[in-house]
Design brief:
Length: 373
């Protein structure tokens, strides 16, 4: 089907409700697919109750297909058999793309499956029940898929190592940054008041879950405050609550709930530094988006974060090393300002600008061609 227009259905369920990482991936990929002339994209959601919100949730140019059937009933059927296939429920598709780890039986449509990470295998003690279920759902989807897409080479290598001969062809589709991140500026005084932001802050962005290792970050921040006193910026944790042990209240640490993307870009642009202390990641989009705003980034020394940030992180520290992270945070207190600081910000922005959603879409279409082929 080289050169023909592909009719692709993407799992649009992650678009419903608040947009977390998978939802933002799905949205931005769809936006990039709409800009292409070789794909006609539709968002498919299997839901009895939430389908009414799908037309308003999809990007302009994407057709919404809400299949009003109970997802629980369908999932139960798909766990036992290959019926009913996607091609029967949503006629006219060449390819169906499972955007969130799971691929139902696709029938006559080719199947493409996105695996964002394999923390459910490597760190089963720090994921929730839904992720635990992936231990069964992912290998089932791999046997149905004609192609797999991953956000990083790190994840591609891990998938091949974990699943061996049942893995079809894997295409690495690096994520991108929306142009609004490259144009983001620190919040004004009025915006700080509106968003409830301190004048100066260190920042974490993401769901508060054990895999993100916020315990190490909070411990390191506490040591920094103990040694440096009032000169230390506040630590702002932005994102929805997740699961696992509650974080202990600590001086200078402030929780900030989910923020819409336009506000989040401003929050990130105004930070002294963004910190990703994760124990495991499949990509690390908050780090890349922070670089796009010019903000300094501190990351844990894990393969995906090294791959995504290249040589642009101001510090890389061993996972769980409180002392090393304390010193990395201390370095932000003496970071250059003025022309030197502006040059650093420009360098980070230039690096991040090379990561585009159009590139992600181009490589994803390669997987669609394989699946349709």
């Amino acid at each position: 089907m080289a050169g023909s227009i592909l009719r692709v259905g993407l799992d649009g369920t992650p678009l419903l409700g608040r947009r977390t990482g998978v939802g933002r991936y799905t949205e931005n990929l769809m936006n990039a697919l709409v800009r292409r002339d070789d794909v006609r994209a539709s968002a498919v959601a299997f839901t009895l109750r939430g389908g009414g919100g799908l037309p308003d949730a999809v990007p302009a140019g994407v057709t919404a297909r809400a299949i009003r059937l109970p997802a629980r009933v369908l999932n139960a059927a798909w766990s036992r058999s290959e019926f009913p296939p996607i091609s029967l429920l949503t006629r006219g598709l060449d390819v169906y793309h499972g955007t969130n780890f799971v691929l139902p039986p696709t029938g006559r449509a080719g199947g493409v499956m996105m695996i964002h990470d394999i923390a459910y295998l490597t760190m089963p003690d720090v994921v929730d029940d839904a992720s635990q279920a992936l231990r069964t759902l992912v290998p089932r989807g791999l046997r149905r898929a004609a192609a797999v897409v991953t956000p990083s080479q790190t994840t591609a290598d891990r998938v091949r190592e974990a699943y061996g001969s049942i893995v079809p062809e894997v295409v690495v589709t690096p994520l991108g940054v929306d142009p609004l991140w490259l144009a983001a500026v620190p919040p004004s005084t009025a915006d700080r008041a509106r968003l409830g932001l301190p004048a100066d802050y260190l920042l974490f962005v993401g769901t508060r879950e054990p895999r993100k290792d916020l315990a190490t970050l909070v411990a390191a921040y506490g040591r920094l405050r103990a040694s440096s006193g009032s000169s230390v910026p506040e630590l702002l944790l932005v994102g929805p609550p997740g699961w696992g042990p509650d974080l202990e209240q600590a001086p200078g640490v402030r929780l900030h709930d989910y923020a819409p993307i336009e506000d989040l870009a401003q929050i990130v642009a105004g930070a002294r530094a963004l910190v990703m202390p994760s124990r495991d990641e499949g990509f690390g989009l908050p780090a890349l988006e922070a670089l796009a705003t010019g903000t300094a980034v501190i990351v844990s020394d894990i393969p995906a974060l090294r791959e995504v940030t290249g040589d642009q992180a101001v510090a890389v520290f061993p996972v769980g090393d409180v002392e090393a992270l304390t010193e990395a945070l201390r370095g932000t207190l003496t970071a250059p300002t003025g022309p030197d600081g502006d040059a650093d910000r420009a360098r980070r922005r230039s690096y991040a600008a090379g990561w585009t959603w159009d590139r992600c879409a181009e490589r994803t279409v390669r997987a669609y061609r394989i699946a349709a082929g």
